[in-house]
Specification:
This protein is mainly alpha-helical and 137 residues long. It is built from five helices and no strands.
């Protein structure tokens, strides 16, 4: 009975192929955004000598908006800016807490803590995008 309903749909409800494709897009945008973030911070702070607080605020906001636009343009996420913003802000707060906890409480080195937290938050962000229906199937 179950196999006949799956046969009618021609596809199981869970598809590794779709998830892999979505995760690849998510990762590609993340890598590009990271390199842009580093380059723009270097350019504004070291080359143009713009105040660090101003530069980092402008870059973080710009990258945040650029990622939303990129995700939408490559048909990765739905155009739901509020949901995207809530998830992203929550993940950044979790990132801040995670780094603090690993470094200051558990006394794990900064390098390892950053890698662990950034990797975990990256994966969790994708999972939450998927669970909340932000990712387009």
């Amino acid at each position: 009975m179950i196999s006949s309903s799956i046969a009618k749909n021609k596809e199981a409800p869970f598809s590794w192929k779709k998830i892999s494709k979505s995760f690849t897009k998510f990762t590609a945008v993340g890598i590009i955004a990271t390199f842009c973030n580093i380059y723009l911070l270097w350019l504004l702070i070291d080359i143009y000598k713009i105040n660090t607080l101003i530069s980092s605020s402008v870059v973080v906001l710009g990258i945040f908006l650029a990622k939303f636009i990129a995700y939408h343009k490559i048909n990765l996420i739905r155009k739901q800016f509020i949901k995207y913003t809530v998830i992203q802000v929550s993940m950044r707060l979790l990132q801040i807490f995670g780094v603090w906890y690993l470094i200051d409480i558990l006394e794990i080195s900064t390098l390892y803590s950053a890698v662990i937290v950034m990797g975990a938050v990256f994966m969790l962000t994708f999972i939450i995008f998927k669970i909340t229906g932000l990712i387009i199937e």
